[in-house]
Amino acid sequence: MARRRVKKRTHVGANNGANPTAKGKPVDKSPKSMVIRIGAGEIGPSVSQLVKDLRLVMEPGTASRLKERKSNKLRDYTTMCGPLGVSHLLLFSRSESGNTNMRLAITPRGPTLHFRVENYSLCKDIMKAQRRPKNAKQLYMNAPLLVMNNFSTQPKPDDKTPPPVPKHLESLVTTIFQSLIPPLNPQATPLGSVKRVLLLNREPPTDPANNAYTLTLRHYTISSKVTGIPKPLKRLNQAESGEKKERRGRSLPNLGKLEDVSQFLLDGDADMGNYTSASESEAETDAEVEVLANTTRKVLNRSKHQKEMAKAAKDGKSGSRPGVEKRAVKLTELGPRMRMRLIKVEEGLCGGKIMWHDHVQKSAAEQKELEKKWEERRREKEERRRIQKENVERKKRERGAGKDDEDEDGEEDDDGEHGEDGGDYDIDDDEYWDSDVSAEEAGADDEDEEMEDGG
């Protein structure tokens, strides 16, 4: 009999489904996200393009090819977050009044930040406004560098007014955004892998009567050039190294009209030689940094290395830094841009106790009453879970007792009601499951009605 063919390119090999998270293999704990359109195409083409641009920002730890449907609900996405290892959800939607909303939620149990997108610019709009836009696939191979500015505010000594957002919620918002991007280890991360910057800036309130929590989002690419080298030498180095031309006709200079190469290096003519005006000089020193140059070095043993160090100290070069070069750092915007206003903070995943609201202010008595309601709902939920657990244990005992009776009587199982699959617990058969769902939905509706009445 012929041997059955095993597909090795598209299927798992002979072990037939080896566990990728087995012992000895590291588990990737970097944050992963999903940028989702709630309602699919109903939110409009502009917001749909904004979602695509934001997926590029979150690369490579995001679902870049996610396809939404109008019939998809939030529960469909939260169900798959666990198996796929998704830690954050960015949900975009549009209200009936035309406002664009964004929700940033941490799976599986929250909290959730609700933002209103006041204005935004797409990547294509920013690229049209630039003279030399930059956009390459190599930029999105690694996660961006997260820079957060002005997230924690210090109250003034003479100011007795309460802050617009409590301190513990400010730290919560900061922690959520920090967990959105993988952390950067300066000692282990190569500088060449950091090619993008994600800037989040909290704008100070312009109107004293309106202390809104407003954030602006910017996305840049990082480029660096060697400084401290005259322009003629740069042109010669560029021609020798074979780098890509930045401008047409600038790769190899024409020296046919000169008698000596020194005229090209030392002449004051701006067209051929060195620069003479401040407008043609290098970038300002504020944007310059010192980095170690990529040079090939010979590996020395300890004795030879000590001899080299002693020789350098004897020559008076111990304080110098060999292999250090100055580079000018430049940021070019990639997009998109967003200006967001924090509306409310929820305790759960898009449904739960509201910890803070921008438009609704509750008194101390109203807050205590809400705390009592949520505490009662929590006790009811724990009671339902306890009853469900008892039902599971009871069905397991009944199934075990049935098997023991069959072994004693010597009868075969007819694979009927108590067959292989008959004893498995089905949560749909539990009468408390529907009441749990309805109670949670009713609780969410009651909370929305209370917030609207409070407004």
Automatic annotation (TrEMBL):
<feature type="region of interest" description="Disordered">
    <location>
        <begin position="362"/>
        <end position="455"/>
    </location>
</feature>
<feature type="compositionally biased region" description="Basic and acidic residues">
    <location>
        <begin position="362"/>
        <end position="403"/>
    </location>
</feature>
<feature type="compositionally biased region" description="Basic residues">
    <location>
        <begin position="1"/>
        <end position="11"/>
    </location>
</feature>
<dbReference type="InterPro" id="IPR007109">
    <property type="entry name" value="Brix"/>
</dbReference>
<protein>
    <recommendedName>
        <fullName>Brix domain-containing protein</fullName>
    </recommendedName>
</protein>
<feature type="region of interest" description="Disordered">
    <location>
        <begin position="298"/>
        <end position="332"/>
    </location>
</feature>
<dbReference type="GO" id="GO:0019843">
    <property type="term" value="F:rRNA binding"/>
</dbReference>
<dbReference type="Pfam" id="PF04427">
    <property type="entry name" value="Brix"/>
</dbReference>
<dbReference type="GO" id="GO:0030687">
    <property type="term" value="C:preribosome, large subunit precursor"/>
</dbReference>
<dbReference type="GO" id="GO:0000027">
    <property type="term" value="P:ribosomal large subunit assembly"/>
</dbReference>
<feature type="compositionally biased region" description="Acidic residues">
    <location>
        <begin position="404"/>
        <end position="455"/>
    </location>
</feature>
<feature type="compositionally biased region" description="Basic and acidic residues">
    <location>
        <begin position="306"/>
        <end position="330"/>
    </location>
</feature>
<feature type="domain" description="Brix">
    <location>
        <begin position="33"/>
        <end position="351"/>
    </location>
</feature>
<feature type="region of interest" description="Disordered">
    <location>
        <begin position="234"/>
        <end position="254"/>
    </location>
</feature>
<feature type="region of interest" description="Disordered">
    <location>
        <begin position="1"/>
        <end position="31"/>
    </location>
</feature>
<dbReference type="InterPro" id="IPR045112">
    <property type="entry name" value="PPAN-like"/>
</dbReference>
<dbReference type="GO" id="GO:0006364">
    <property type="term" value="P:rRNA processing"/>
</dbReference>
